[in-house]
Amino acid sequence: NSFDLTIKKGDRIVLTGPRGCGKSTVLRAIEGMWDSGQGEITLPFSAPEILEHLLCVPQRPYIPPVPYRGILSYPYEAGKYTDEEMAEALRNVGLERMIPRLQDEVHDGSYWTPRLSPGEQQALCFARIFLRKPDILMLDEVTSSLDEVSAVGLYRKLLEKLPNVTLISIVHHKEIIPFHTLHASIEDKNLTVRPITSATAQAVPGPEAP
Fold first, then answer.
1. Is the pLDDT of residue 66 over 50?
2. pLDDT in tens, 41-53
């Protein structure tokens, strides 16, 4: 149903609702990747600037057919970041063992995809976030393959490194909800928004709710 939502700079919104209710569609619409609905979405920058300011990370990471350095810097060219910037990003997500691979020009994404666990691939996405430093970040269940401790640790590191980011999350672990300031809930085709407190965080239905 129709709704009107204003997201202010620095807001951190967690979006919940039953499976199939349209959570991911909301993110795709904001990104400009879904045009089957009606309405208006206004962003604080022009369409050519979207790549610079806004980043939407899907649940399943994309591993391009390039060497590891290019995989980490995606969608930018491998030379955009220095060795130290890339190494620091990998350390921030617990992938220190991959730092030597930044110099590997032989193996591409087809080699690395089966050798990185789903959790390691999602951690790699957070490393990309730390390199990109977007103003607006949308995360679509990007910790679904991680255990709760790892998921919480990555969100804590995210807010440490990007304290002013405007964040919209669809989450897999309830423990991540308190990292947000607002709870947007889709129920019976209606979207409502409430402030997050410790009590409301505990009351939010889990992501596997039918």
1. yes
2. 899 888 788 888 9
The strand pair at 190-195 and 182-187 is best described as: antiparallel
**Residue indicated by tokens 């991959």:** 98
The partner residues of 23 in beta bridges, in order of sequence, read: none
Question: What predicted TM-score, i.e. pTM, was given to this entire model?
Answer: 0.88
At residue 138's C-alpha, the angle toward residues 7 and 45, to 5°, is 60
Tokens of 120: 């390691």
Please answer whether residues 17 and 171 qualify as being in contact, where contact means their C-beta atoms are separated by less than 8 angstroms. no
Identify whether the C-beta of residue 13 lies closer than 8 Å to the C-beta of residue 7. yes
